[in-house]
């Protein structure tokens, strides 16, 4: 194995140097070797890819669809995305000029940020939220501005948004909003979105709206931010959660033409184009798989209700999530433990794996995330063990 030469050992991008491992994956790896642990950690669907989508991928291979596709993605998939967004959310995008197929929603986030940010410019991030946003902002030279939503039902209010915009002034270039939320599962109503849109309308601020969990909503139908502020919204979505296609890595950006023209250059320089089989599978999933998320959603709802009821019986304070597949309970004050220590103790002594709340920003401290993208068998056993662990812990304290 080669050893890094001393002559190049100090050659590195200063923006990359401060980064450690992804906190979610790092904690999951840290506890993975504990014998007999029940893991309720990662947000990956435990369902298989729908059969018709798999067959479309296989057919593309057999048809020798093995060459470069258009950099923004095959037109058939972009048309399917356009139709899907129009049918399900009432937002209209031209498949030729306003949609880019990306390597998952993660690339869509990075590409969007890289396209709009100059060094030192700021992005408003309501927390707790998916930590990759903060990391990506820093990686492209920007500065994340966290807004604590823990006392507002885990939603940013128009008042707090206006206050932070006034404070940051022209340095603020974007707001990132994620709903249904990771790790909280919260959903914004149309009225709430309209109130936020009123704050940023006609200001020099993009709204990067990550709606990857939009098909996993348990109450009223999902409303896209793009429907209330189309001219300033960068809509991000994909098939990882809706069709359990995490490994296929298909996401997309839908936005006004002027933004897409620039973002398409960033995207193409970085990855050229997504793979053929994954794109054809995604096209089939969107064209003929409208009902695919329905059974998943029903199953997730059953799991959610079981976990929330169990947590309530244990005395945990939590908000019942309206979407996604996470619950975000508050650690009882009597434990005297921060989120990392609580979760590590739970893993070692209670044999249950969850993710510490501080992995989702400063406002997540004092909470932990449970993923119910796993079997009901594991969920029941995990809740049983959590109850036993909590009783013992609180008795000691």
From TrEMBL:
Spell out the protein name for this chain: Aminotransferase
Entry's EC annotation:
2.6.1.-
Enzyme class name:
transferase
Q: What's the source species for this entry?
A: Companilactobacillus nodensis DSM 19682 = JCM 14932 = NBRC 107160
Supply the CDD domains for this chain: AAT_like
Q: Name one Pfam family in it.
A: Aminotran_1_2
Identify the cofactor(s): pyridoxal 5'-phosphate
Q: Does the keyword Transferase apply?
A: yes
Q: Which residues form the Aminotransferase class I/classII large domain?
A: 37-386
Protein family per UniProt? Belongs to the class-I pyridoxal-phosphate-dependent aminotransferase family.
Q: Which GO terms describe its molecular function?
A: pyridoxal phosphate binding; transaminase activity
| Single biological process term from Gene Ontology | amino acid metabolic process
Alphabetically sorted, this entry's keywords are:
Aminotransferase, Pyridoxal phosphate, Transferase
